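Cross-check.
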Amino acid sequence: MSATQSTPVRVGASAVPYGHVIGSEKWRGTELAQLLQGKVKLLFEDGLGLVDFHLSHRACVLYISECDLVSGNAFRRRLVRFRKATDLKGVVIAERTRLSDQYFPPVQDFVVLELGMTLLPVSGQSEAAQLIFHLVQERSRESGTNPFLGKKRSHHSEASILQTVQRIPGVGRVKALQLLQYFPSIQQLSNASLRDLEAVVGRGIASNIQSFFTQT
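Predicted model, tokenized:
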């Protein structure tokens, strides 16, 4: 704990090579780490401070577990300290489960409205691994090199699709990337059923998506 307090963010994410993820040692052997191995080059370091995973392009992930949400406000202090300590692009991944669901709305307001950070709910570590992998892919696309994808759509086409999806109320950049992982074209997204959309982003945003394309 003393190391975390003295060095809130020890590794600069700008130094992480594309296609790599630097994870806190505490994640070694977890389901999330096992699922990431083989998809990305996952390296572990001790004493990363407040950050759980560093990605390239000055991005990082702070993970809030179901236990964190239920047990109190320690995670809030952690996020505030992160915001004060660095200008890295922090993505908050939080476990929204049956047990933690009642605690989620105020956390969403705190993270998004008060701190101005991206909050991405997941059902557990398996879904979190998919999202982290997708974030790594996006960082690689921004660099112009993607070691994971063979044939790529044109950059302008991808940017146009991403911008369109982000126009949907309640859909930010990360959630747009999450949607495009399951519905890779505007046509597929606009034709998706409410049930399929809910499985990815929840009922509220699923309704926003259908309303957006109906009005458009």
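Residues 1-6, 145-157 have pLDDT under 50 and may be disordered. The radius of gyration is 17 Å. Passed to J.P. for a second look.
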